[in-house]
Amino acid sequence: QVQVVESGGGSVEAGGSLKVSCVVSERIFNRCGMGWYRRAPGKERTLGDLVSSIRPDGTVHYADSVKDRFTISQDNARSTLFLQMNNLKTEDTAKYYCGVIVPWYSAPECHFSWGQGTQVTVSS
User: Fold this and answer.
1) pLDDT tens, residue by residue, 77-95
2) Are the beta carbons of 17 and 85 closer than 8 angstroms?
3) Residue 105 main-chain phi, psi, to 5 deg
4) Residue 107's CB: how many other CB atoms inside 10 A?
5) Between residues 120 and 27, the one the model is more confident about
6) Distance CA 54, CA 105 (A)
7) Residue 54 contacts residue 24 (beta carbons within 8 Å)
8) C-alpha to C-alpha distance for 85 and 75, rounded to whole angstroms
9) Do residues 33 and 104 touch, judged by C-beta distance below 8 A?
10) What percent of the chain is modeled with pLDDT above 90?
Protein backbone atom coordinates (compact mmCIF):
# COMPACT_ATOMS: atom_id res chain seq x y z
CA GLN A 1 0.00 0.00 0.00
CA VAL A 2 0.94 3.63 -0.43
CA GLN A 3 2.82 5.13 2.45
CA VAL A 4 2.63 8.68 3.70
CA VAL A 5 5.31 10.35 5.79
CA GLU A 6 4.54 13.30 8.02
CA SER A 7 7.04 15.73 9.49
CA GLY A 8 7.39 19.20 10.93
CA GLY A 9 5.63 19.01 14.26
CA GLY A 10 7.05 20.40 17.46
CA SER A 11 6.34 22.35 20.61
CA VAL A 12 5.31 25.98 20.66
CA GLU A 13 3.65 28.41 22.99
CA ALA A 14 0.11 29.52 22.40
CA GLY A 15 -0.03 32.07 19.63
CA GLY A 16 2.92 30.53 17.81
CA SER A 17 3.10 28.89 14.39
CA LEU A 18 4.14 25.56 12.95
CA LYS A 19 4.08 24.03 9.49
CA VAL A 20 3.67 20.31 9.03
CA SER A 21 4.36 18.41 5.84
CA CYS A 22 3.36 15.10 4.36
CA VAL A 23 5.02 13.35 1.46
CA VAL A 24 2.57 11.25 -0.49
CA SER A 25 3.02 8.77 -3.28
CA GLU A 26 2.43 10.27 -6.73
CA ARG A 27 0.03 7.41 -7.34
CA ILE A 28 -2.60 8.94 -5.09
CA PHE A 29 -1.52 12.56 -4.92
CA ASN A 30 -3.78 14.70 -7.14
CA ARG A 31 -5.99 11.69 -7.81
CA CYS A 32 -7.43 11.31 -4.33
CA GLY A 33 -8.74 13.95 -1.97
CA MET A 34 -6.27 14.40 0.88
CA GLY A 35 -6.52 15.97 4.27
CA TRP A 36 -5.00 16.50 7.66
CA TYR A 37 -6.49 14.67 10.63
CA ARG A 38 -5.58 15.08 14.25
CA ARG A 39 -5.93 12.70 17.14
CA ALA A 40 -5.95 14.08 20.64
CA PRO A 41 -4.07 12.29 23.44
CA GLY A 42 -5.84 9.09 24.41
CA LYS A 43 -7.63 8.84 21.07
CA GLU A 44 -4.82 7.33 19.03
CA ARG A 45 -6.99 4.42 17.91
CA THR A 46 -9.64 6.61 16.33
CA LEU A 47 -9.68 8.12 12.86
CA GLY A 48 -9.48 11.51 14.49
CA ASP A 49 -10.91 14.83 13.48
CA LEU A 50 -10.52 16.08 9.93
CA VAL A 51 -8.90 19.46 10.30
CA SER A 52 -8.52 20.46 6.67
CA SER A 53 -8.76 18.89 3.25
CA ILE A 54 -8.09 19.55 -0.39
CA ARG A 55 -9.82 17.85 -3.28
CA PRO A 56 -8.29 17.08 -6.69
CA ASP A 57 -10.18 20.05 -8.14
CA GLY A 58 -8.52 22.35 -5.60
CA THR A 59 -11.49 22.81 -3.30
CA VAL A 60 -10.34 23.24 0.28
CA HIS A 61 -12.19 22.78 3.52
CA TYR A 62 -11.44 23.72 7.10
CA ALA A 63 -13.01 22.67 10.35
CA ASP A 64 -14.62 25.59 12.16
CA SER A 65 -12.12 25.25 14.98
CA VAL A 66 -9.16 26.07 12.71
CA LYS A 67 -10.74 28.35 10.12
CA ASP A 68 -8.75 31.56 9.58
CA ARG A 69 -5.78 30.09 11.46
CA PHE A 70 -4.71 27.07 9.40
CA THR A 71 -3.92 26.94 5.68
CA ILE A 72 -3.64 23.78 3.61
CA SER A 73 -1.50 23.75 0.49
CA GLN A 74 0.35 21.36 -1.75
CA ASP A 75 3.45 21.14 -3.87
CA ASN A 76 2.54 19.04 -6.89
CA ALA A 77 6.11 18.67 -8.08
CA ARG A 78 7.10 17.08 -4.77
CA SER A 79 3.79 15.33 -4.04
CA THR A 80 3.79 17.05 -0.70
CA LEU A 81 0.88 18.29 1.38
CA PHE A 82 1.37 21.11 3.89
CA LEU A 83 -0.57 22.56 6.78
CA GLN A 84 0.48 25.99 7.99
CA MET A 85 -0.81 26.54 11.51
CA ASN A 86 -0.87 30.04 12.94
CA ASN A 87 -2.14 31.44 16.22
CA LEU A 88 -1.95 27.99 17.75
CA LYS A 89 -4.05 27.22 20.80
CA THR A 90 -3.55 24.64 23.54
CA GLU A 91 -6.53 22.71 22.20
CA ASP A 92 -4.63 22.21 18.93
CA THR A 93 -2.32 19.83 20.78
CA ALA A 94 -2.58 16.48 19.01
CA LYS A 95 -0.81 14.13 16.69
CA TYR A 96 -1.38 15.20 13.11
CA TYR A 97 -1.75 12.72 10.28
CA CYS A 98 -2.35 13.16 6.59
CA GLY A 99 -4.55 10.76 4.73
CA VAL A 100 -7.14 10.24 2.06
CA ILE A 101 -10.58 11.70 2.74
CA VAL A 102 -14.11 10.53 2.08
CA PRO A 103 -15.34 9.61 -0.50
CA TRP A 104 -11.93 8.62 -1.91
CA TYR A 105 -11.21 6.73 1.32
CA SER A 106 -13.01 3.64 0.00
CA ALA A 107 -11.69 3.80 -3.57
CA PRO A 108 -9.26 0.95 -4.31
CA GLU A 109 -6.89 3.23 -6.19
CA CYS A 110 -6.65 5.44 -3.10
CA HIS A 111 -5.76 2.80 -0.56
CA PHE A 112 -2.88 3.85 1.67
CA SER A 113 -1.23 3.09 4.97
CA TRP A 114 -1.32 5.63 7.77
CA GLY A 115 1.99 7.19 8.64
CA GLN A 116 3.39 7.72 12.12
CA GLY A 117 1.99 11.21 12.34
CA THR A 118 3.73 14.25 13.71
CA GLN A 119 3.19 15.60 17.21
CA VAL A 120 2.12 19.18 17.76
CA THR A 121 2.19 20.43 21.34
CA VAL A 122 0.97 23.89 22.26
CA SER A 123 1.64 25.18 25.76
CA SER A 124 -0.05 28.06 27.52
Assistant:
1) 999 999 999 999 999 999 9
2) yes
3) -55, -35
4) 14
5) 120
6) 13
7) no
8) 17
9) yes
10) 73
